Amino acid sequence: MTPTRSASRHVAPVAPASRAAVSRWLAGGIAAGPVFLAAGVAQGVAREGFDFSRNALSQLALGEAGWVQTVNFLFAGTLLVMGAVGLRRLLGGNRGGTWGAVLIGVFGASFWVAAVFPADAGAGFPAGAGDSTVMSSHGAVHMAAGMAGYLALCVALVILAGSLADRGHRGWAVASRLVPVAVLAGFAASAASVVAFTAGASLGLLWLTAVMTRLACDSVDH
After folding, report:
1. What is the DSSP string of 48-79?
2. Measured distance CA(77)–CA(108) in Å, rounded
3. CA 62 from chain center: how many Å?
4. Are the C-beta atoms of 23 and 215 separated by less than 8 Å?
């Protein structure tokens, strides 16, 4: 969709000298979701006892090969923080560049916390674990970090909807306000269905990738 002339007047152009730098920072945020999810799916397929219908990707950080998922959390968090810096540089001092960027940074930091404080075993994973899950202190911190991080993401997407609308991307703006509803619905259903939880979390990550890609394209166009 091509931005309208009236919308474009509200978009500050990115200086040519800084476009490459902005694109590099945004590339981190764009890659974060696909990289994190691809690594998680690959591990889930390879790890004995992991069941996508019963286990959350966070549990992959448990067991002998758990370090792979821990690194995945740390790397994804770093990529998200890079994306936050890119948003700040691209959008400047408006709401998207200020609060949108800060909240994406919080989302990225939540991945670092999740790496340090792993989820609890349960639902048969790691191999040999029982079906029931006993909440530990590190498991509680992990859960709290995930909830805080995804709430920050949802608010950031709503804020970034304004930046999309300013660029004439009305359909994108509407979708960016609706996706958080689906993400939160997935979290609300997590007690009954880990699939719903995983779907909601994945949708949030992938929509952030889509939004950053759309904004990165705008930085090239202007």
Report:
1. TT--TTT--GGGGGSSTTHHHHHHHHHHHHHH
2. 4
3. 21
4. no
Count the domains in the chain.
1
* Residue pair 26/220 in contact by the 8 Å Cβ criterion: no
As given in the structure block, the two tokens for residue 171 are: 């359909």
User: What CA–CA distances, in Å, run from 50 to 45, 46, 55, 74, 191?
Assistant: 7, 8, 6, 21, 18
According to DSSP, the residues that pair with 122 across neighbouring strands are: 125
DSSP-based three-state secondary structure for 12? coil
Range of the domain at 158: 16-221
Q: 3-state DSSP call for residue 125?
A: strand
Nearest of 212, 185, 222, 168 to residue 13 by alpha carbon: 222
Q: What is the pLDDT of residue 3?
A: 44
Query: In this predicted structure, what is the pLDDT of residue 194?
Result: 95
Q: Is residue 6 part of a domain?
A: no
Q: Residue 11: inside a domain, yes or no?
A: no
Is residue 34 one of the residues assigned to a domain? yes
From CA 103, how far away is CA 197, in angstroms rounded? 21
With respect to residue 3, please indicate whether it lies within any of the assigned structural domains: no
Task: Report the chain (222 residues): mean pLDDT per 10 consecutive residues.
Answer: 43 58 92 98 96 96 96 98 95 91 98 97 88 88 97 98 94 98 95 94 98 86 55
Confidence (pTM): 0.90
Residue 6 confidence (pLDDT): 41
